[in-house]
């Protein structure tokens, strides 16, 4: 529990106790003869408002139960102390205490049920990782249809929104998928480019683009990656990409070594 919730819960418990005292004063107002008889109303109202506000920030279930209990106990004590012996105080007190117990029981049962539902939903979702999509996913040629900025970066690498058309290599019908992905700032996909990809046929938004081969890249995706690199990519201009790399170099985002390495890849795609 955060510090703010602990503070709010502590204040709420105190306010509930004071509200219970206010309820006690209200139960005695009929037999009160002093000048301060009306103060019980203000004590009750202010404490009640404070307890409700605290319940919105702190432990809601605990504070609602505490408030009901405080009001119920205050009503019963007030009824006992009332020389007129009004029975209504006992009824109000019993109702408040039972209400508090009901809140606790229903609240706990609801929390348990919601936790079970969340666990069931979480367990029912497929666990798909990039490695899984590469090894067991359906191989496809992914044509980038759109790239959008998200404004998020991780270690200076951007997270971009990608919308792609996935054409299975086994001759299946193309499908479209869209997701946010972390990409290298040196190799940001562009609309019109094509990449080797693996995806889940049941969830087209679960796909992985092969932007670079590694030791873990399956052979069939490695071959597709190499083939696509040697083909002309619609809308791709190596000189324009080289200019952007130079801008990054001049801005200090790329070192000379990184710039030369990326330039060599552009000038010799098969290297």
From TrEMBL:
Residues 240-267 form the SHOCT domain. InterPro entries: SHOCT. It comes from the Bacteria. The chain crosses the membrane at residues 7-27, 39-57, 62-81, 87-107. Keywords: Membrane, Transmembrane, Transmembrane helix. Pfam families: SHOCT. This is SHOCT domain-containing protein.
């Amino acid at each position: 529990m955060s510090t703010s919730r602990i503070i709010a819960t502590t204040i709420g418990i105190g306010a509930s106790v004071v509200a219970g005292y206010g309820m006690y004063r209200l139960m005695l107002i009929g037999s009160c003869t002093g000048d301060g008889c009306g103060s019980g109303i203000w004590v009750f109202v202010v404490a009640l408002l404070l307890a409700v506000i605290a319940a919105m920030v702190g432990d809601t279930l605990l504070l609602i139960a505490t408030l009901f209990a405080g009001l119920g106990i205050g009503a019963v004590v007030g009824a006992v102390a009332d020389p007129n012996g009004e029975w209504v105080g006992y009824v109000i007190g019993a109702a408040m205490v039972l209400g508090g117990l009901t809140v606790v029981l229903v609240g706990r049962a609801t929390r348990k049920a919601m936790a079970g539902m969340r666990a069931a939903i979480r367990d029912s979702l497929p666990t798909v990782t990039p490695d899984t999509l590469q090894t067991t996913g359906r191989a496809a040629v992914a044509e980038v249809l759109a790239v959008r900025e998200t404004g998020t970066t991780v270690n200076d690498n951007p997270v971009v929104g990608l919308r792609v058309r996935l054409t299975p290599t086994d001759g299946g019908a193309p499908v479209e998928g869209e997701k946010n992905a972390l990409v290298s700032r040196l190799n940001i996909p562009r609309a019109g480019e094509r990449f080797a990809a693996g995806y889940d046929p049941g969830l087209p938004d679960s796909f992985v683009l092969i932007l670079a081969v590694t030791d873990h890249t399956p052979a069939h995706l490695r071959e597709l990656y190499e083939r696509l690199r040697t083909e002309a990519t619609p809308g791709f201009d190596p000189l324009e990409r080289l200019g952007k790399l130079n801008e990054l170099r001049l801005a200090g985002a790329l070192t000379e070594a990184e710039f030369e390495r990326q330039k060599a890849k552009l000038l010799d795609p098969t290297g």
